[in-house]
Amino acid sequence: MKGVTPCRNFLLILRKVGRYGIETMNAQGTVHKYGDNVDTDVIIPARYLNTTDHAELAAHCMEDIDTDFVKKVQKGDIMVGENNFGCGSSREHAPIAIKASGISCVVASSFARIFYRNAINIGLPIMECPEAAKKIKAGDKVSVNFDTGEIVNNTTGEKFTSEPFPEFIKEIINAEGLINYVKNKM
Question: Over the stretch 130-169, which tens digit does the pLDDT of each residue have?
Fold first, then answer.
């Protein structure tokens, strides 16, 4: 497809059941951009791990790397990182803090394996797309279509794509996480 740069792997398809059945959900927002090796300790510093309150975690999300993040982030915004996003500890607090802050999707060149799994487990859509992660800049307006995997930089007009996840992962995201998915299956 002309003008579309294919990306490898990972698209989370997010759906909600609306009044008239299943409705596609897309992400659209302003980009908050970070570099390589953003670890879980800067996503949510260890000094805040004594709480499980999602709003409290969101209030401190990214504060050690971007002190203004919580002041700037709007519901629906998109976080973009480069290589090895979410490295470090295995804490689920990191993707919870990101999701609770209002971020609708994380796009990165690559994710640390445990962060990748934790994000799915809590229902945070993540996409691995090196070309998009490299070319999208902080402050750009970006749209993500979770059904097609298309990422559009509305600021520049550039388009990227990623492959969808298997059906069972789509179902986990649709359920808002693994715990709800299991409850729904019982």
Answer: 999 999 999 999 999 877 889 999 999 999 998 767 778 7
Angle of CA points 147, 44, 133, to nearest 5°: 40
CB-CB neighbours of 54 under 10 Å = 15
The string of pLDDT tens digits covering residues 48-63 is 999 999 999 999 999 9
pTM for this prediction = 0.86
Q: What is the DSSP string of 85-113?
A: BTBS---THHHHHHHHTT--EEEES-B-H
Continuous H helices in the chain: 40-43, 54-59, 69-72, 93-100, 113-122, 130-135, 167-174, 178-185
H/E element holding 166? none
Measure the CA angle with vertex 29, ends 128 and 74; round to 5°: 115
Are the C-beta atoms of 16 and 123 separated by less than 8 Å?
A: no
